[in-house]
Amino acid sequence: MPEATADLNLIRVFCAIYESRSVTGAARRLGISQPSVSHALQRLRTAYRDSMFVRSGRGVVATPRARELYPGLRAGLDQLEATLSTIDAVDPVVAPMRLRLWLTDLGERAFLPIIIPALRDRAPQALLEIRPLVVARVESALHRGEVDGVICSQRLELPGVQRSPLLLDDYVVLAAADHPRIGETLSAAEFAAEPHIGLASEVGHAAPTAIAEARFPQLRTVLHVPRIGGIPDVVRHTDCLAVVPRFLAELERRRGGLKVLAHPLQVPHAETALYHHDRSRQTAAQRWLTDLILETCRAPAFGGGAEPSPRM
Fold first, then answer.
1. CA diameter of the chain
2. What pLDDT shows up at residue 279?
3. Position 1 confidence tier, pLDDT thresholds 50, 70, 90
4. Rounded mean pLDDT, 277-289
5. Is the pLDDT higher at 9 or at 312?
6. What is the pLDDT of residue 309?
7. Last residue of one domain, picked from the residues 28, 60, 84
8. Do 40 and 76 belong to one domain?
9. What are phi and psi of 2, to 5 degrees?
10. Which of 21, 112, 117, 137 has its CA 20 to 30 A from that of 130?
11. Within a domain: 307
12. Reduced to 3 states, what is the DSSP secondary structure of residue 65?
């Protein structure tokens, strides 16, 4: 067996390059410089007498030898890091952690008022960077180390990524308070007859729209938006209806100008979850952030202590 297999850091580099398909991405994920990753890769190549990874476009692809080695090295690394994680701790009080989280605009309103006070109290030196959610890049961003966690309502099945449910919410219909045709209740026929505001499918919340369009092929969508947060203001000033999670509806009801109506169709709940690496693959800071979010934001139904949104 090559001597390199005894070097835990080399195995970490190998797995990071394999999973991120990029030397640069592996460096970001591991928190080391790109030259350090390149040096480690050269040691791997020498030890195994194989190039291990070859350039392809903007990244790298594994050689047959690397593909043969990966399952065993990954499993061994997971077992070792699971054992070492008990001593690989971070002191949040003094550690200058830089944490990165992807959220939608609604996620910012729902979760940051909960996360930030806890972060300031427990990790006063930490910096939390929020970036807009890009669903198509969640898997690659996590594997490349570009983000430490992702909170979204769209259900994602991603290899090597763990899904931890946070909250359940039901969907309601928003209408202007002075809507000329809608009263205090909403029938299915009234719902189908009115113009609607739609949300881009990549944001999530696609199930209610799919159910409504299947039931009413003639349903008229007059506006598609990429973010959910601006929908209530459009509804206030038009005769359009919009389907949103109750959390947003109740926040906006307080500002006035809206009716919040029960959805006339049977639609599933909105389930928001945190996506993150398995604990054995997380850094100490990532494990700390995951624990913080699950402790502060998780509804009691999922084993947490967060206060759910109304009628959740």
1. 78
2. 72
3. very low
4. 83
5. 9
6. 44
7. 84
8. yes
9. -60, 145
10. 21
11. no
12. helix
CATH number of the domain residue 72 falls in: 1.10.10.10
What is the band of 3 on the pLDDT scale with cuts at 50, 70, 90? very low
Q: Which of 14, 10, 9, 8 is nearest to 26 (CA)?
A: 14
* Same domain, residue pair 44 and 192: no
Cα-based torsion angle of the residue sequence 152, 165, 170, 296 in order, rounded to the nearest 10 degrees: -90
pLDDT, mean of residues 137-160: 88
Same domain, 137 and 283: yes
Q: Do 227 and 109 reside in the same domain of the chain?
A: no
Distances (CA, A) of 249 to 174, 176, 193, 263: 7, 12, 21, 12
Residue range 273-281: average pLDDT? 84
Per-residue pLDDT averaged across 4-30, rounded? Answer: 82
Number of folded domains that form the chain = 3
Q: What is the pLDDT of residues 34-83, one digit of tens each?
A: 888 999 999 999 989 999 999 988 889 999 999 999 999 988 887 776 66
Asked if 275 and 289 sit in the same domain, the reply is yes
- Residues 79/94, Cβ–Cβ less than 8 Å: no
Query: Does residue 47 belong to any structural domain of this protein?
Result: yes
Domain boundary among 64, 84, 104: 84
Give yes or no: residues 144 and 200 share one domain: no
Q: Quick one: tokens of 262?
A: 């029960």
Co-location of 290 and 235 in the same domain? no
Alpha-helical segments (H) within the chain: 8-20, 23-30, 34-48, 64-84, 105-122, 138-144, 188-193, 207-215, 231-236, 246-253, 284-297
Does residue 216 share a domain with residue 80? no
Question: How high is the pLDDT of residue 94?
Answer: 63
Contact 171, 243 (CB under 8 A): yes
With CA atoms as reference, report the closest residue to 40 among 28, 29, 56, 52: 52
Q: What's the predicted TM-score (pTM) here? A: 0.68
Distance CA 288, CA 276 (A): 12
Rounded CA-CA distance 14/48 in Å is: 12
pLDDT the model gives residue 205: 85
308 located within any domain: no
In terms of residue numbers, what domain contains 251?
170-260
Q: Would residue 303 count as lying in a domain? A: no
